[in-house]
Amino acid sequence: MPAVTETREAVEKLGQSSYKWGFETDIDMDLAPKGLNEDTIRLISARKEEPEWLLEWRLAAYHAWLQMEEPKWAKVAYPPIDYQDAHYYAAPKKKPGPKSLDEVDPELLRTYEKLGIPLHEQAMLAGVEVPEGEEARMPVAVDAVFDSVSVVTTFRKTLEEAGVIFCPISEAVKDHPDLVRKYLGSVVPTGDNFYAALNSAVFTDGSFVYVPKGVRCPMELSTYFRINARNTGQFERTLIVVEDGASVSYLEGCTAPMRDENQLHAAVVELVAMEDASIKYSTVQNWYPGDENGRGGIYNFVTKRGACRGARSKISWTQVETGSAITWKYPSCILQGEGSVGEFYSVAVTNNHQQADTGTKMIHIGRNTRSTIIAKTISAGKSDSTYRGLVRVLPKASGARNFTQCDSLLIGDQCGAHTVPYIENRNMKARIEHEATTSKISEDQLFYCRQRGLSEEDAVGLIVNGFCRDVLKELPMEFAVEAQKLLQISLEGSVG
Amino acid sequence: MNAVTKDTKATLQPFQPRLDAVKGLERTAALGALHRVGLPDRRVEEWKYTGLRFLAETPFAGPVRAYDATWAQAELQRLGVTAGVGAALARLVFVNGYYAPDLSVLPEGVSVAFFSKTGSFGPLACPDREALTALNTALAEDGAQISVPAGVDGGHVLLVSLGQAQAGAPISFHPRHSVHVAEGGKLRLTCIQGGQGRYLHNPVLEVSVAARAELNHLTIQSESDEAASLATLYAQIDERGAYNSFVLGVGAALARHEVHARLSAAHAQVHVNGAQRLRAKQHGDISSVITHAAPDCISRQTVRNVLDGQSRGVFQGKVLVERIAQKTDGYQMNQALLLSEHAEIDAKPELEIYADDVKCSHGATVGALDDDQMFYLRSRGVPEAEARQILIHAFLEEALDLIADETAHALSAHIMATRYPLSGEEA
Amino acid sequence: MTQFLDISGLCARIDADGQEKEILRGVDLSIPPGEVHAIMGPNGCGKSTLSYVLAGREDYEVTAGSVTFHGKDLLEMEPEERAAAGLFLAFQAPIELPGVNNANFLRTAVNAVRRARGQEELDAVAFLKTAREAAKALSMAPDMLKRNVNVGFSGGEKKRNEVLQMTLLQPSFAILDETDSGLDVDALRIVAEGVNRMRSPQFSALVITHHKRLLDYLKPDRIHVMAKGRIIHSGGPELAEQIDTEGYTRFLAEAA
Ligand SMILES: Nc1ncnc2c1ncn2[C@@H]1O[C@H](COP(=O)(O)OP(=O)(O)OP(=O)(O)O)[C@@H](O)[C@H]1O
Ligand SMILES: [Mg+2]
């Protein structure tokens, strides 16, 4: 497995900067010329040796995109993006798809080592509650995407034996064309929104997961995304299909080097859960947020949507968002199958000049569908953070239930925290409950902790972690440890 | 506001002959604003859930001063203005937007002027921002300008609006009211709205509550079932002033009650409460923006909706806490009870907060009548229909209880009882 | 002067809704090493305020006087520095920390203090062992360590949790602000035993209480009577008996 190191060590080793993942890896790259036009798309498709239908699909998306306007309703402000001023294809020169780790560029391996993935477990005392006796942990299979290309996927053999397909989507297009063709764009259509259309036109790689009927995926699947090259956009595309009675837990992590200019990230993730299937999708998003003056950082415009197609299917999104200069992201669930369940657990932390507008959509279509939304927002520095969520209950969704809890914490008097829920109910037999609070960290709690000897910064970290507990406990253990550290690091310098 | 690409002129068509005749500085400026954006459609975020198709379909004539006195008197009785507890109160009655002195009883200790005479627009309304206010500004005919001197208790005043349109001849009227309670003064104001036929009532009311003054304001919207009632309120509350408002909406085919309340100095307080009960194809929208622009202020909002038939209830409530507004205490609750399979509720409670030392919360619930409670009542021998009525009544009453003044509460109870007699099925 | 804890002429006030309120009006008090002192006094006389000012709570403004602790100016120190220096306050109303695991909190605190004192940090295993034993000695249910700090604890459980923290943090000076109130008879004895176990020539305590019962267990060296923000009388352990039977009237009259 690449890069197994202790998170804390990794973090500590990475120098003085407050963004600890800000190094750049020097690797020979194959870059498409700057700019976006039909030729770029043809070039991407050709490089990937794609079938004709996919090229057509991309071109259709591109033409839809040309007709669309960038959405302006989110509470984020940024200078206009010049979509012609980026590279839409960047790949390490070495041929991707090594058979073993020995074939991987050692520079790359070192990068992942620095990133510290997957993360070594820590004791329960790091604050992660592990039920007693459940300390044995599952191995994690990793797909690493470097700029636009998947560079290594581990544990494929083991997974294959279980019947699980876990590979770069570019390979899936070749090896499992029927599956890809059937599901690609079936949850997020090419013309869904501006960024999804852009992604559909130019996506270069991402992960594909297929779990056949009745199979519980024997290990956690994980993708690590890394933007490295300068002036590139990253447009990965993830597709996860889980058949009847099957289940999978999928983890996603992201980092990028520190740069003065902004880089664009516009991913699309589609999930499909059939009858009794369950998908748990966890994200720790730590793209470079820009410096303390708001220079640089990733623009993160992501479309994530899951379809609960089958009865009693379940899709659960958990996200810890600490990175990016701008986050625009609403992982959603379309609850179509009777009794299907959607969950959204989110922690969004913004500091300095970061802006985040994130939340979810729960669309209740089928009877007795249920959804839970727990969103914790923490704003510090001069940042702005918005929870924006939609709960929509359609006329057929009798017995639908939603519970939403949004809490915001403000640290310092130069930031903003906003809550914008939309509740639309067209069924009298549905029940919706929504609660939201906004406050600052209690002086009493701070004083209590400091009286016990904790520094102010540690006290804030502890209280913030407590504030986020209901979300963090949804993360797989290793991610939870990483997430806790991240929260603390993200808020550094925000108190006192 | 986003630039909305559409034919703005077309949305103004129903008012065109009157708009063409607009003169005067404020009015032409408002007209300019209207021409820029037109009347809002669903793409405007604030109007996401309430469409104005009703207006587009109807050419509205201007109102005339003459009215049918017999009808008006009967209507005042029916609304409880000249019967029951209302009879003893001072009242300013407007018919089709014009002041009707014959139907009115002027209050004492309170000064009253009329917009038709003074022609003065107040400082609070924003024709640049709200298109309906711009429309009102361009076309305003008349209105009451009430002011309570410093330290005076102005008692209880009714401000009544009756609309009467003859069949096939829809009219629109755009009253421009204002209420000012000077330092340490007090007033109870109940606005009652009723009418007959198809008309548009588009009032703008400016409320200013000076330091340590108090205004208790109830609006009872019981307009004609064919009418549109689109009210915009602007309130400003000064240091330690209190503005307690409540809107009860039961009438109109299309109703919107939009409040912009600004807490402009420390320790000011505002209540923006409401309840609506709708049926058939009624559309009722209660929207508000409460701005905390000073520290140590308190805002409270409780809104309850009961929706039957194919009705649609909308609640939009934004609480904006500016950076300076430390120690803000804000609370907001919106609840809806759906009685029919075809009813719909859309709610958007919103917090926008820039100060850190605040305590703000909001909640929203949507549901049907509680099965357990129904069962409990029926097991005690109460027939189903009656049990329903009891529970619906109780649900609304919890909101109506927020109307502290007894007389005002009785006025609202009267309207509720007329529209929805407690015994048996709904009228 | 004791060279341990010396409070002299301490005045403090609070800004309550825009109005300055004088609460401590010249407190003089010295506690030598190894002694347990008690403060008694009517409600609202400023006992808790004194404990907060000693622990460094920011709401209170010290307007006059000085406090030295181990020869250092206590008032100059941050709350966490005071904790590291050995001062511990058991709160009259312990604060709830939602989502913060009690064991995790304790270990973080213990290690922060140990670090500051130049001691080796405890690893998870060693810490848990110590914590479990200490909890057991206070007859606390084992799941108290797993629960969130003070959240949903009963009044008595919160007080025991305060004493547990004291035991683990090993302070040289503890202020117990009405730690006995809300405790049942057995718990009172258990808690008192907990404090007594800490007694040593290096440990002093200031016990704020309204009841003689706790003092019967603790056998304080001195008892001070506080009223209207000052110490108005000091005496031996026998004072407890006197206050129990007579109340404060006589002391108040004498002081006036
Ligand atoms: N934050 C505050 N705002 C206003 N007044 C305060 C505040 N804190 C303390 N006081 C006042 O200061 C006085 C002293 O309070 P303190 O809590 O120190 O009393 P105490 O002696 O501990 O009383 P008790 O025996 O009831 O615990 C009281 O009158 C109290 O009301
Ligand atoms: Mg006290």
3D structure, described in words:
Chain C: GO terms for molecular function: ATP binding; ATP hydrolysis activity. Chain C: Keywords: ATP-binding, Nucleotide-binding. Chain C: InterPro entries: AAA+_ATPase, ABC_transporter-like_ATP-bd, ABC_transporter-like_CS, FeS-cluster_ATPase_SufC, P-loop_NTPase. The complex is a heterotrimer of chains A (496), B (427) and C (256). Chain A has helices spanning 7-13, 38-47, 52-67, 106-115, 156-162, 169-175, 177-183, 194-202, 443-451, 456-472, 477-490, and strands spanning 29-31, 90-92, 140-146, 149-153, 165-168, 207-211, 220-226, 237-242, 247-255, 262-265, 268-273, 278-285, 297-308, 314-321, 326-329, 332-335, 341-350, 355-364, 370-380, 384-393, 401-411, 416-425, 431-440. Chain A is built from 11 helices and 23 strands. Helix content of chain A is 23%, strand content 34%. Chain A is α/β, with parallel strands linked by helices and 496 residues long. Chain A is globular, with a radius of gyration of 21 Å. Chain B has 2 domains: 6-265, no CATH class; 369-427, no CATH class. In chain B, 21% of the residues lie in helices and 38% in strands. Chain B is built from 10 helices and 21 strands. Chain B has helices at 8-11, 16-20, 25-37, 53-56, 69-78, 115-118, 131-139, 371-379, 384-400, 406-419; strands spanning 90-95, 98-99, 111-114, 144-148, 153-164, 171-173, 176-181, 186-196, 199-201, 204-209, 214-222, 228-237, 242-249, 254-263, 269-278, 283-292, 298-307, 312-321, 329-338, 344-353, 359-367. In chain B, a hairpin with a 2-residue loop joins strand 1 (90-95) and strand 2 (98-99). Mean pLDDT of chain B is 92; it is low at 1-5. Chain C has a single domain, classed as P-loop containing nucleotide triphosphate hydrolases (Rossmann fold, 3-Layer(aba) Sandwich), CATH 3.40.50. Chain C contains 9 helices and 10 strands. Chain C starts with a strand and ends with a helix. Chains A and B meet through strand 21, strand 22 and strand 23 of A and strand 20 and strand 21 of B. Strand 22 of chain A pairs antiparallel with strand 20 (344-353) of chain B. The complex binds adenosine-5'-triphosphate and magnesium ion. Residues 47-48, 92, 177-178 of chain C line the site of magnesium ion.
**What is the ordering of alpha helices and beta strands of chain C?**
EEEHEEHEHHHEHEHEEHH
* Strand arrangement across the biggest beta sheet of chain C: 6-7-8-3-9-10
Task: Indicate the radius of gyration of chain B in whole angstroms.
Answer: 21 Å
Structural class call of chain B reads alpha/beta
Give the helix proportion of chain C (percent range).
Answer: 25-40%
> What is the overall silhouette of chain C?
globular
CATH class of chain C: Alpha Beta
> What's the end-to-end separation of chain B, in Å?
42 Å
Give the bound compounds. adenosine-5'-triphosphate, magnesium ion
- Stretches of chain B where pLDDT is under 50 for at least 5 consecutive residues are 1-5
What structural class do the secondary elements of chain C suggest?
Answer: alpha/beta
Range of helix content of chain B: 10-25%
Sheet of most strands of chain B: 11 strands, mixed
How big a fraction of the residues of chain B is strand? 35-45%
Largest sheet of chain C: 6 strands, mixed
CATH superfamily of chain C: P-loop containing nucleotide triphosphate hydrolases
Domain SUF system FeS cluster assembly SufBD core (chain B): 171-395
InterPro entries (chain B): Fe-S_cluster_assembly_SufBD, SUF_FeS_clus_asmbl_SufBD_core, SUF_FeS_clus_asmbl_SufBD_sf, SUF_FeS_clus_asmbl_SufD, SufBD_N
Pfam families (chain B): SUFBD_core, SufBD_N
Domain SUF system FeS cluster assembly SufBD N-terminal (chain B): 26-152
